[in-house]
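S1.2 Input.
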Amino acid sequence: MARKTRQSTATSEMHTLKEDIRSLRKEVRQLTEQLVQYCNQTEKRIAESEKNIMDHFDIAVETIRHDLAGANQDEITSLKTRVERLEQHTGLARV
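S1.3 Output.
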């Protein structure tokens, strides 16, 4: 009878261990799914941030390019005006 009790106890403990293992596997599976979901969301947020940064960068570059073109045109106009004044002052102006 003692032998049967030991076998019964061992069988019961094995069933308990199997249930514990199943439970842990289920929990690990759920945590893995949550981690994958979090990683996917993080990748999407990073991609959105990169796009926003590039959009702002493109706007900044275009603004600088426009400002430089305007400044360059202003300088050319200013130089033309100075040359015309010098030509008139020196009598070299084309009439």
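S1.4 Remarks. The first helix runs from residue 2 to 90.
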